[in-house]
């Protein structure tokens, strides 16, 4: 989500609503698990997009991104230096491409949002390091998603870890609240000061989705008005989970097998 300003209205979810979002998230997680074996050199972003759309609709759910502010696709497929909102196209993916696949599922009104990163074919040490740091940064942020903590605690944990590994955190695109619509308050930056910002309350459902770059954190926009890419052409990686703030700690709603 791009940073926005304005009146903050936060929807607190009931246990029943969170359970429904967990079911939606389980569906989304299962598609991310299934697409791993589908992604290989020669496959196109458009084929990956169709893979997701077919499975979402087969489960009786809605690919919520289609039609959002005029967006035409079920997913965003962002390649290499594309940070986010890449259009799925017919260009064959190459060995060594780093792709990020992001989508939102609406299952009977319950929303879930998750992005996952994949290497096409063989990886490199640079990509391995970037992916490892980005995924660990996601979970360091999730660890801070506790009742009574503040939004800044999440961003601070992510930023300090990522920068300590010699990488950078994108500033312009951030996490957000989710449900009953795709993007809601609060905003969840992946940088910031510990102890600052909105206090987290039981019943909040948010996304944490750090976008981490090998070079500068600064972004530039493509002419299509959607796709953001690194200003210096460096690689970008992203992992995202939807999660609920509960008294027992953060409940990941888009958890994949083995997490």
TrEMBL record:
- Which Gene3D superfamilies would you find in this protein's record? Creatinase/methionine aminopeptidase superfamily
Give the enzyme's EC designation: 3.4.11.18
Positions of the Peptidase M24 domain: 20-247
Question: Which residues take part in binding a divalent metal cation 2?
Answer: 113, 176, 209, 240
Q: Which reaction does it catalyse?
A: Release of N-terminal amino acids, preferentially methionine, from peptides and arylamides
Q: Which GO terms describe its molecular function?
A: initiator methionyl aminopeptidase activity; metal ion binding; metalloaminopeptidase activity
Keyword annotations of the record: Aminopeptidase, Hydrolase, Metal-binding, Protease
Look up keyword Hydrolase and say if it applies. Answer: yes
Q: Where is the signal peptide?
A: none
UniProt GO cellular component terms: cytosol
CDD domains from the xrefs? MetAP1
**Which positions does UniProt annotate for a divalent metal cation 1 binding?**
102, 113, 240
Q: Quote the record's cofactor note.
A: Binds 2 divalent metal cations per subunit. Has a high-affinity and a low affinity metal-binding site. The true nature of the physiological cofactor is under debate. The enzyme is active with cobalt, zinc, manganese or divalent iron ions. Most likely, methionine aminopeptidases function as mononuclear Fe(2+)-metalloproteases under physiological conditions, and the catalytically relevant metal-binding site has been assigned to the histidine-containing high-affinity site.
Stretches of the chain forming a coiled coil according to its record? none
Sorted alphabetically, which Pfam families does this protein's record hold?
Answer: Peptidase_M24
Residues annotated to bind substrate: 85, 183
Q: What class of enzyme is it?
A: hydrolase
Q: What is this protein called?
A: Methionine aminopeptidase
